[in-house]
Amino acid sequence: QVQLVESGGELVQAGGSLRLSCAASIRTFSSYSMGWFRQAPGKEREFVAAIRWSGGTTYYQDAVKGRFTISRDNAKNTVYLQMNSLKSEDTAVYYCAASAGRSYSGNYYYTRSSYAYWGQGTQVTVSS
């Protein structure tokens, strides 16, 4: 059974940084692509970033490009989201997700239905 557990969310001031972690209990973690999504109050869950199973290709939502970095450590079965220059609009619950699919199309990773497994989320609050 696949489990994803996020951590690292907290209250931070605008301009600050946070690193989110997602620990995955997946036997073949290196064969899964991983994504981060977020959901703000009253809004739909949206794509933030993704990293392919190989780790060589990453994707980002335009609003976070240049500020957020997704990475993975296959030896630790963990994916990270380094968030810098945080803004109040980054306030949301952040979810980790895992996809067993193999695609070379970015659109695949932007789509929630591409991910079969989800964590419970971690709250990030950015105060202005």
Shape: globular
Percent of residues in beta strands = over 45%
Q: Based on helices, strands and strand pairing, what is the structural class?
A: mainly beta
The oligomeric state of the chains shown is single chain
How many H/I helical runs?
Answer: 1
Distance between the termini: 40 Å
- Binned, the helix content reads under 10%
Structure summary, number of beta strands: 11
Mean pLDDT: 96
- SSE series: EEEEEEEEEHEE
Radius of gyration, whole Å: 14 Å
The main β sheet shows up as:
7 strands, mixed
Uncertain ranges: none
Q: Overview of this structure, please?
A:
This protein is mainly beta and 128 residues long. The protein has one helix and eleven strands; from the N terminus they run βββββββββαββ. The chain has one helix at 106-110, and strands spanning 4-7, 11-13, 18-24, 33-39, 46-51, 58-60, 68-73, 78-83, 92-99, 117-118, 122-127. A hairpin with a 4-residue loop joins β7 (68-73) and β8 (78-83). The model has no long low-confidence stretch (mean pLDDT 96).
What's the short story on this structure?
With 128 residues, this protein is mostly beta strands. It has one helix and eleven strands, in the order βββββββββαββ.
